Amino acid sequence: MTERPLLTQRPAWAALQAHFARIQKVHLRELFAADPARGSRLTAEAVGIYLDYSKNRLTEETLQLLFALADACDLRGRIDAMFRGEKINITENRAVLHTALRAPRHATILVDGHNVVPEVHTVLEAMRAFVERIHTHQWKGFTGKPIRNIVNIGIGGSDLGPVMAHEALRFYAQRDLNFRFLSNVDGTDFAETVRDLDPAETLFIVCSKTFTTLETMTNAASARQWLLAALRDPASVARHFVAVSTNAAEVRKFGIDPANMFGFWDWVGGRYSMDSAVGLATMLAIGPQHFRDMLAGFHAMDEHFRTTPFPQNLPVLLGLIGIWYGNFFGAETVAVLPYDQYLKRFPAYLQQLTMESNGKRVTLAGVEVDYQTGSIYWGEPGTNGQHSFYQLIHQGTKLIPCDFIAFCQSLNPVGRHHDLLMANVFAQAEALAFGKTADEVRAEGVPEWLVLHKTFPGNRPSNLLLLEKLTPFTLGTLVALYEHIVFTQGVIWDIDSFDQWGVELGKVLASKIVPELEAAHEPDLQHDSSTNTLIRRYRRFTKPPTP
Ligand code: F6P
Predict the structure, then answer these.
(1) Which of helix, strand or coil describes residue 93?
(2) Mind giving me the DSSP string for 287-318?
(3) How remote is the CA of residue 156 from the centroid of ligand 1, in Å?
(4) 178 Cα: distance to centroid of ligand 1 (angstroms)
């Protein structure tokens, strides 16, 4: 590993700090007043996304300094290395090639000298053929009934992408298939998922990169039992279970015919996998053509990210603006606020993408950082959030940069609804930026004791992403946009955005505690006193001492 200065020791960082000291108090009102064209100038547009970033607390100089930081961190070289298939996930010694999942058939992307693109298209073709068999009822359940229910069993990246895409693209979905997503190891999730389903009409997709994840394998085993209790023949498993995995040996051990396994590869991270075979449920819902359109959207954003100069590059701009707030203003969170009900699971999806990727505190060279890394992402669709947590964003003590996402056309035009929705998103961004001064409040005749309560400080930053319409293509562009924002920020922070060691310890400790909870006799507990007490208390309810 070549020696690199820590981020905070770079001259480009010091330049940004000095600049921050100069402009941290400048109000967006002043910035807009000084430049009447700001609202149209600080915008960028690509692959159907219009980005208005004018309501950010920055100037041209800020942007130049951020681009200089990106250059100092070799962002260009690192983008190229990812697209070339270099093993940039250094702690797992893996290439990072979710971009190959949406590469056109004729592309060549080498991993260890081997072109992976043909395999990607072979799997897509197998998915298409399978989806058509389900849709045309050629694939039937064991008793001859057509499949009407699809249950995706998976967790993390093997759940959140399919769930989000199913919600987001519901408008385009086959309505005669009923989709459920089973993830939690809590038995309630299993019970409620299957409660009203007919096993003879139900297909389970066991979706797990490793095929060893506790939650998924526990749910899959319960699903198999549930099926066998009704159909009473082990041969039925092959008609009611298919797998999405990289682990053929474990799939076979579970009893799923490897012919019904849709593969992917270790160069696809779980949270970057919704456009791989992990998207089987998505393709079943929206059909192969819409799925291809979604991949085209991902690819269009990939190409934009790979080839566009930084000042017009949407993921680079948004990634660097995020660095500006997190590392200089000390903001800890980002609110993602989609003004489209179909995107209601988009913030939840982004939480894994962003926080499992950039929640790291050690550089690629193995040095502990002395600066903030990954932000906390959260959000809810507008306008619901306005009647819940927006109060804190407008008048609270914390700086929360917001990403608003909105579409000019509604998929469900009903009366004036869409104009009202859009008026609200524009109004929120305006109110956050400009607020309402004490003088403006006084001018309304508000008594002096109430003035401060009714004042809005403003100067609260936001980005607004405005698209024409939510389609499979635009969803692909949006997801890829955030993937590349994560990448951009990971490069600046000099961390490995593609491993997830932080999930391991809890898994190991839980596997030690399971036998202690289930043991017939009082176990010899060697944990801390808190954990020991909790385990004993739990056992008093589940294993009362025999008289
Ligand atoms: O939470 C850790 C994690 O490994 C995620 O990165 C992954 O998406 C999820 O578990 C599920 O893993 P698998 O697809 O192997 O079941």
Answers:
(1) coil
(2) HHHHHHHHHHHHHHHHHHHHHS-GGG-HHHHH
(3) 5
(4) 25
